[in-house]
Amino acid sequence: MSRFKYSVGPWNVHEGADAYGPATRETISFEEKIRTFKEMGFDAIQFHDDDSVPNMNNMTEAEIIAEAKKVKALLDKYDLKAEFVAPRLWMDPHTVDGGFTSNSKDDREFAMWRAYRSIDIANALGCDKLVLWLAREGTICYESKSPVTSTKLLIEAINNMLAYDKNIKIMIETKPNEPVDRSVCPTLGHAMAISAASNDPSRVGGLLESAHAMLAGLDPASEIGFALAMGKLWGVHLNDQNGMKFDQDKSFGVENLRTAFNQMKVLMENGFGDNGEYIGLDVKVMRTEKQEGSYKHLENSLKIAKMLEEKAARFDYDFQEKCVKERDYEALEMYVMELLMKG
Question: Global pTM?
């Protein structure tokens, strides 16, 4: 039995369209996804604001909350929880130049409106976490924005969210290089600094995605460990990445097995999940997978994660201590490889 609770987002089952080609699979209904996620063994659902309330820009605040409550009833039907809500700012015409750090005051106000509505939706769904994926909070042309002003605007926006709801917790999901090439907050270290500068650091933490760390040339297990040391790791999105390319969201562990093991090991060693945190999977099925394989990437990622849980539980800490004492790192490294490769 897994020691962790796992979450997934409805966008992880998709039609296969990307920037270079059209859809390759048919759309699966939201309820069918939710039902299948439950059957697969997931415990919670990750949401963007408009995953739960499509077309929310055209609704009143009361209408948005009413629609979110319908989704809460659906979650209750399948005995699932909502993990978080994330305002989807990067897809809107108002936010082509960023949301919270836009050069347009009207667009910054729109971003705050979406953030406030996301908090309303989170309350309706019964969760207390907001995720900020700062997709377009940065620059393509360096001289178009001041990094000083942008950082201050981001802190101001977070403070506004904290003031709007005294119970909401904000998780900053960092990403270094896509879709902008200079991010305001590219790593967990930046997120920790933003947290410290906020009006209530106890309610601002981080969410680490494996691929995002790799895209910054960083080791995801070390990023996880850094945030754990700060008491600020409130979520993870496990996946994999083949080098410093675009964000691939490959199935967890299929490219970098030892790195995946180290992520699972550091989470287990430091009690991740003891306060109700979920391990999120943010993975995409291969574009050419057939319709019947729409969930296979999630099945594979869950299986690999649980296999690595079992491997980490068997880790011989006495042997590790002996190797460290004797400075025999070659023996320790080989032990880890044998642990991973043997049945």
Answer: 0.95
